[in-house]
Amino acid sequence: MHPLGALMSCWPLQTRPFLIATPGVYRKYRLRLQTPTRTQLAEIELLGPRPEKP
What we know:
The chain has 54 residues and is mostly loops. It is built from 1 helix and no strands. This is Alpha-mannosidase.
């Protein structure tokens, strides 16, 4: 089971943020799902960098 498997089932119909391992500007982006589960994806929103703390 995925390490977050227990948490994943409690996220239906909600927005869930993920950090990108190597942030940068790319011509294309690829989403890779690494667990063989039934998944529904309604929308992907790519956001800019987090604001720096003062």
